[in-house]
Model the fold of this input.
Amino acid sequence: MSAPASALVVRDVTHAYSRTALDGVSFEAAAGEFVVLLGLNGAGKTTLFSLIAGLLNLQRGSIEVLGNRLPQQREEALAATGFVFQQPALDLDLTVAQTLRYHAALHGLPRREAEWRIEEELAKFDLAGRTGDLVRTLSGGQRRRIEIARSLLHRPRLLLLDEPTVGLDVPNRRAILERSRRLCREQDVTVLWATHLLDEVKDGDRIVMIHKGRIARDFACSASNRVADRFAEATTAEAAE
Amino acid sequence: MRPGWQRCFRGVVEREFLRFLRQRSRFFASLVRPLVWLVIFGTGFHSVLGVSRIPPYDTYVLYEEYIVPGLVGLILLFNGMQTALSMVFDREMGSMKVLLVSPQPRWYLLTCRLVAGVIVAVPQVYAFLACAWLWGIRPPPMGYLYALPAVIVSGLMLGAIGLLVSSVVEQLENFAGVMNFVIFPMFFASTALYPLWRLADADPVLATVAWLNPFSHAVELVRFALYGQVDSLALEVTVGVAVVVMALAAWRYDSGRILRRQLGTAAT
Done:
């Protein structure tokens, strides 16, 4: 079976709690594309991620991950997707190795292969030699890197990162961003990077701007198409209405 | 289920064990609680309450001996609620999401958690039975072997109730309510501390409540097994309640209700 052209297809997704969080959201992400989902706090980014992760049930619209439709093919979709959640999701009293082994087991990786991949990912994130350390003894940046390493252990084709750099210092932010971009370039992984920080965007990135639950803009960032201007347009246009 | 489901199961069990090992106080608390009942309460009522010949006992038994299966049930009950507590804790800390985005069906993931909880409970039960043996409560030696499946089935039922509770309880702070509205009524309105006929003498309504209480059936299942017998009604009720409650818990976790409240208020 040939791989689908789009790694992620979101069509007309609407979701409401006591108020509407997403309203007719549609976009696609191609294989190997780095997509920045840009929006203010409360714009609907986390709700969208939770729907893609199957943590929330779809109320309206459809989502396909690598050709697998949610919720019918949720397990297949999850097997090909890595997640880094906005809220840190680490058990502080496990060691680094135990944390990663747990994730590898949840994804059904054989023990030996898991050990090999753990070593490899930790080395890539400058955490080799920390396998026996308790997670609680690591810094915020190191913990975030552990979470990203964890999300890559099962070799996902789609990686979703929900504000992964919040609270981190500049070198850690830069390192995580660069590593994620490299995944797209070198391994053809599709990355959906949710943020509200404009300085995490660079020329050539595809920007999907979300505002008050709607897609406000969808464009490629360039010198002539500056993200700050478009962001200001989108948010102030709404205010003017 | 997808390939790798056995590794997924092993991973969940391993994590539960690691968690248990680092909470040594949990082990001692689980042991001290029934021992306090056995040594203090049991001794206090030793001369007041004797239990006449009722199945599975073939002679009169002392009160301490009567309450041992009930105290095994108490360990399993607290362990089931500990499962619920750790599920709510995981939800609040975010690590629940790691489990829920694993590529296995939700019912299977919950079953892994349930079985892991029971595997952790079994050594606690046998440590208590060893202490009870030292205290002079000595069921037939083969009873310890026969009791194992009964302990597992009872543990599964009480763990399933714990999972359902965890799907209803929104915050860790609400766990005091679980003590008051789940653990205490289930334990006291059961046959754990007094036989049904004594309850019926004192208050027929309470006796009916105790008979309807699934915890009573879990206790009776363990009691009969300890003496090499099978209480088929208790077995049917315990298995039936376990299946129905587990299905309800899986439905609640699968319907997205659990994280919906959290996400709806925390972030959009």
In short: The beta strands of chain B are 50-51, 61-62. Chain B is about 80% helix and 0% strand. Chain B touches chain A at residues 2-5, 7-8, 10-12, 14-15, 18-19, 22, 93-95, 97-105, 255-256, 259-260, 263-268 (CB under 8 Å). Chain B has one domain: 5-254.
